[in-house]
Write a structure and sequence with these properties.
Blueprint: E1 6-12, E2 26-27, E3 30-31, H1 32-42, E4 48-53, H2 56-64, E5 68-71, H3 79-87, E6 94-97, H4 107-115, E7 124-131, H5 134-137, E8 144-147, E9 153-157, E10 168-178, H6 179-185, H7 192-197, H8 201-206, E11 212-215, H9 227-238
Parallel strand pairs: 1-4, 1-6, 4-5, 7-11
Antiparallel strand pairs: 2-3, 6-10, 7-10, 8-9, 8-10
């Protein structure tokens, strides 16, 4: 079977409402973005890992730790639009939208995400994990997902789904796309449910494309506020992450 050519792209912007400049914040002696980049490289899943940014501060920082960086247009309204600009220049089969604010993503998770593309019918896939903490499942910043017996997503929501469940599945925002599908997706207009929930992935479902979910064992740290730095450092220390 032909080897799958995968590229990992980290869309990176300096602005952030809750934590401006978070990707350059210090986490165990390195910028958050550097940890995200190193996680992708160490997975050995990609022919290329590229930082895509419209910000010169991020460009300079990424180059300082050896990352390949491409400057993109400032007009992009989403990370997906930003990665498409870069992906068009690459010879690859699958593009993974890596999150710069997810500093520690185990290699096994990335490989598991890519493994589903052995099925040629799969156009797009993402990661989810089970959560039993009821208070966390009520948090609108943690996106919930329900899926069918074939692990195709039925719906994503900021609300608790299913209702009164003792366990919910929470979305981890890494996406893998077949390149041709990704280029087509960004040509589609925002859809009603996408606009209501403020969740881009609903555009995929509303346009009728199956979205494969890959279930992993646990959450990974996400840096969205200054307080999240300490939590990420603790997570890494508990697992001996270096």
């Amino acid at each position: 079977m032909k080897k799958l050519r995968a590229a990992g792209i980290i869309p990176a912007r300096f602005a952030s409402t809750r934590f401006p400049g978070k990707l350059l914040a210090n986490l165990n002696g390195k910028p958050v973005l550097e940890w995200a980049y190193l996680s992708a490289v160490k997975s050995k899943a990609f022919e290329k890992v590229i930082v895509a940014t419209d910000d010169y501060l991020i460009q300079r920082a990424a180059r300082s730790f050896g990352a390949e960086v491409l400057l993109t247009k400032r007009s992009h309204t989403s990370g997906t639009d930003r990665i498409v600009e870069v992906a068009k220049k690459l010879a690859c089969d699958v593009v993974v939208n890596l999150q710069g604010d997810h500093p520690f993503v185990p290699a096994a998770m990335i490989r598991n995400l890519l493994s589903v593309f052995a099925d040629k019918k799969v156009e797009v896939a993402t990661l989810v994990y089970p959560e039993t903490d009821v208070e966390k499942t009520k948090n609108p910043n943690l996106v919930k997902v329900v899926f069918d017996k074939n692990k195709n997503a039925l719906y994503f929501s900021r609300s608790t789904i299913p209702w009164d469940a003792k366990k919910a599945f929470i979305h981890i925002g890494l996406y893998a796309f077949r390149k041709k599908f990704l280029e087509k997706l960004v040509q589609e207009k925002p859809t009603p449910l996408e606009t209501t929930e403020k969740l881009e992935q609903l555009r995929i479902l509303e346009n009728g494309t199956p979205l494969k979910v890959v279930v992993v064992g646990e959450a990974v740290p996400s840096v969205d506020t200054p307080e999240d730095i300490a939590a990420a450092e603790q997570w890494a220390a508990e697992r001996g992450w270096k």
